[in-house]
Amino acid sequence: xxxxxxxxxxxxxxxxxxxxxxxxxxxxxxxxxxxxxxxxxxxxxxxxxxxxxxxxxxxxxxxxxxxxxxxxxxxxxxxxxxxxxxxxxxxxxxxxxxxxxxxxxxxxxxxxxxxxxxxxxxxxxxxxxxxxxxxxxxxxxxxxxxxxxxxxxxxxxxxxxxxxxxxxxxxxxxxxxxxxxxxxxxxxxxxxxxxxxxxxxxxxxxxxxxxxxxxxxxxxxxxxxxxxxxxxxxxxxxxxxxxxxxxxxxxxxxxxxxxxxxxxxxxxxxxxxxxxxxxxxxxxxxxxx
Length: 289
Fold this sequence. Notes:
The protein contains 14 helices and 5 strands. The chain is of the alpha/beta class. It has 2 domains: 3-77, Arc Repressor Mutant, subunit A, CATH 1.10.10.10; 100-273, Rossmann fold, CATH 3.40.50.10490. The model has no long low-confidence stretch (mean pLDDT 86).
């Protein structure tokens, strides 16, 4: 029995306050897996003791155990084989599969436009433009988004680096050299990377600016972000397809390019002149005898 089923089975026997907690947990299952007891208490505006009493009421020994149950739940829900099997079993034909996929992707793209206003994209572009160095960070499928963004920021003459979370020595060297003039762009979707969550906590504690590219306002990396850009990546069979996120990145790049078009046009001309200069053979200074 999953933790959601356990909560639902006990729901009618809970107090009004406990039912309110139950509703929040079932609606924010991805977020709960990464919250501390103190954070959840603050979010719900109830005491920590009230939450611990809720755990006992549903037969869970502790808040730590509750978190583990939610972590197990989201891992199981996002497993590709499980999702693939259940989705494929419901499909009746190839036409059904293609039609449903197109509908899902349309929904993802519609939500990109609905959840990211031009004003928010403009604010994000301003942060990038004014930053001395932009640090990109994403793991798993999110690293592909970083790979897409990196060369395009370079083309716009933005000083950009990719953080390596797998090597603590390299990461430490990058972080110790970072200044308040820099900007971090963190990218993470369910199942959220615990390493990127820790990085977000570090950046917040040390008052660094960062943009969160994630799926919702409730994402654990969104809590203290300066700007939140939201993308949903629902797919018929797999999870975290990045097509919608890439579209969001392209919108951000277009806004950034438009805001700096005069500077970019000037720089492109300069770059072209440099290319032409170095493409010609040097003229000999020796006089012909």
